[in-house]
Specification:
209 residues; 5-stranded mixed β-sheet; 8 helices; 10 strands
Length: 209
């Protein structure tokens, strides 16, 4: 949530003399925040954007290939092949509906969660078969909105970055971070080489720097 506030506020700081068109990519869970921020920005600044909302991996590849000028992604390490600006930390936790999985907050070892049904949101490189081999109550999804629906409906527990949920949604969930403290992600603005200086300034302001 802190990341989202900075994201929205920094967009409003774009000055009026930057007549720029951008091709933006963005992780899907920030869609609402980016759309709202761009609407506010367009009222005060001649900045226009074509935008695609997709997974971080696809955003990264599209910036590398030149199809996008910049993108906002969640990544577990600093991007190695692209210019980037770090925006914020994205803590990861194991989450489950509080009315069904309240005990996960007190878990000290992952083995304590083995009997609970799981909802998995794998990376693009992972197949689903490995999760099916873990037991009989595993659901695999590749759409973050479906993942959220399943978690909030009590279908199972799952590991995910916590800022995919709103504050009101988090209040309905039990959250365990101690067992996955080393898995936190960070949100980055990535951009391609050869951009004009004013465009790089634009990205820096988007990122709140």
């Amino acid at each position: 949530t802190k990341c989202r506030v900075r994201f929205g506020e920094s967009l409003k700081e774009i000055t009026q003399n930057k007549n720029i068109h951008v091709r933006l990519g963005c992780i899907a869970y920030l869609a609402g925040d980016l759309i709202s921020a761009l609407k506010a920005l367009n009222q005060n600044s001649p900045v226009s954007a074509n935008t695609v909302f997709t997974r971080s991996f696809d955003c990264y590849r599209s910036v590398e290939s030149g199809e996008l000028d910049c993108a906002f992604i969640s990544w577990d390490t600093k991007p190695r092949t692209l210019k980037h600006v770090e925006i914020c930390n994205a803590p990861v936790g194991i989450v489950g509906l509080k009315t069904r999985f309240a005990t996960i907050e007190k878990a000290r070892h992952l083995v304590e969660l083995d009997a609970m049904p799981r909802v998995h949101f794998p990376s693009p490189h992972s197949g689903f078969q490995q999760y099916f081999e873990q037991g009989s109550e595993n659901t695999v999804v590749t759409d973050i909105s479906v993942f959220k629906q399943l978690i909030l409906s009590g279908m199972g527990i799952g590991k995910i970055q916590l800022n995919v949920f709103s504050e009101s949604e988090l209040k309905k969930l039990s959250v365990c971070t101690r067992l996955v403290s080393g898995d936190d992600l960070r949100v980055y603005a990535i951009y391609r080489e050869g951009l004009p200086a004013e465009f790089i300034d634009f990205i820096s302001e988007l990122a709140g720097h």
